[in-house]
Design brief:
Alpha-Beta Plaits, 3 domains, five-stranded antiparallel beta sheet, binds adenosine-5'-triphosphate, binds magnesium ion
Length: about 375
């Protein structure tokens, strides 16, 4: 249990009809004030209050919760979805997305990721539950909710006979936003599409078409961006470009939710990771904590002679002996303390145990999912 904070939240009116929230607090009687850049400074449209009038809340927070005293930008509550076929794609999903974070939603095929995103973006109707996006209910207040959200869909679907420029301009217009060529130019330049803006989409490569989908999603300057497997089937270079772009969007304050099957992508990009399986969110965790779990490696040593038990001298290594006694298995955390493989091999040699062969393997994302799902059920 972390240290207790008394948190004082002060709301101040700032320009453009937004409130800016600064959080100040005390720790063990000492005052601290998170810096502007690091602290939970949140811009939220709130009902007007007289300028300068502070609202003081006294909250009791656990250490690790203080940064998140802010309301979520997306709040999903008790969401279920049963398709007409009778398939229950979402089962009582609850999820809070923090303002300004990059959230990676992982899960095996069919877990319900695209369904969840589809509901939040207003493309799929939920069966039960509510979703609030930046203060707007996605059903009762759908117009405003949708202007806040941009979606890069999993499937490549756009008008192939249109030019890039026409498609992107049309997308912006769909959200009732006035034309802003300078913004569209910036987006197209960032995605290296500017020189091709008069080309028909059908003449572009797969990776470029995917960039057009991103440009469309950004055309109306959304505050929340969903990327549903943005890098599936794209080359390494484009993947890295996308990561850079996602990071730059985040630095502008855009909240990003992405799905991916690439562990490296989640590792590079995400602040937090959610894992879905069979329509349920089975885990939501900070990336660094989860990566420690994902970083498990295994060394298997095939032995010349069968062992009946693990020798006393090797107990410090937490080894496993295979059922037939022909294999010693050493599980270690590749990211944690430096693995003691060299020591282990030396000790094994000193005991006169001959090794026939050795293998190392790293758990794949699917392995981890299977383990998580198994642990969950
Ligand atoms: N329109 C639909 N009608 C009926 N069932 C559907 C429909 N769309 C999705 N499903 C089913 O809902 C479940 C969840 O699908 P969803 O596309 O949300 O999964 P996903 O996690 O995005 O998977 P992937 O990683 O393959 O993209 C699957 O069993 C799928 O077959
Ligand atoms: Mg999907």
């Amino acid at each position: 249990m972390g240290a207790k904070f008394h948190v004082r939240v002060t709301l101040e009116l700032c320009n453009f009809g937004y409130w800016t929230t600064y959080v100040y607090g005390e720790k063990h009687g000492r005052h601290f004030a998170p810096s502007r850049s690091r602290g939970p400074r949140i811009k939220t449209p709130l009902p007007p209050r007289p300028q300068g009038e502070p609202v003081v809340l006294n909250l009791d927070h656990r250490n690790d919760e203080i940064e998140h005293a802010a309301p979520s930008i997306i709040s999903v509550k008790n969401l279920t979805k049963t398709y007409a076929s009778g398939l229950q794609a979402l089962k009582d999903v609850n999820l809070e997305i923090r303002r300004g974070e990059i959230f990676a939603l992982l899960g095996p095929n069919g877990a319900g990721k695209t369904t969840l995103i589809g509901i939040i973006c207003g493309l799929v109707r939920s069966s039960e539950g509510t979703v609030i996006a930046d203060g707007h209910d996605i059903v009762t207040d759908y117009r405003l909710a949708r202007t806040k959200i941009g979606l890069v869909p999993q499937e490549l679907s756009t008008d192939m006979f249109e030019t890039i420029w026409a498609t992107v301009s049309f997308s912006r217009g769909l959200f009732g936003k006035p034309p802003k060529p300078a913004h569209l130019e910036k987006v197209l330049r960032e995605l290296s599409l500017w020189d091709k803006r008069h080309q028909k989409i059908m003449t572009l490569s797969g990776g470029m078409k995917r960039r057009v989908l991103i440009a469309k999603a950004l055309s109306h300057e959304p505050e929340i961006l969903f990327l549903d497997e943005p890098t599936a089937g794209v080359d390494v270079e484009l993947r890295r470009d996308m990561w850079a772009m996602v990071r730059s969007l985040r630095s502008l304050g855009v909240t990003i939710i992405l799905t991916t099957h690439y562990i490296e992508e989640a590792e590079q990009m995400a602040d937090r990771i959610g894992v879905m399986s069979k329509g349920e969110i089975i885990l939501v965790e900070d990336k660094t904590k989860l990566m420690q779990k994902l970083g498990k490696k295994q060394l298997s040593l095939q032995l010349q002679q069968l062992l009946t038990k693990i020798p006393e001298q090797l107990t410090q290594y937490e080894l496993e002996l295979s059922k037939d006694g022909g294999q010693l298995i050493y599980n270690f955390d590749a990211r944690g303390e430096r693995p003691k493989i060299a020591d282990l091999l030396r000790d094994i040699a000193e005991l006169g145990i001959d090794i026939k062969d050795l293998q190392t393997c790293e758990s794949s994302l699917e392995d981890i999912f299977v383990n998580l799902v198994r642990a969950h059920s």
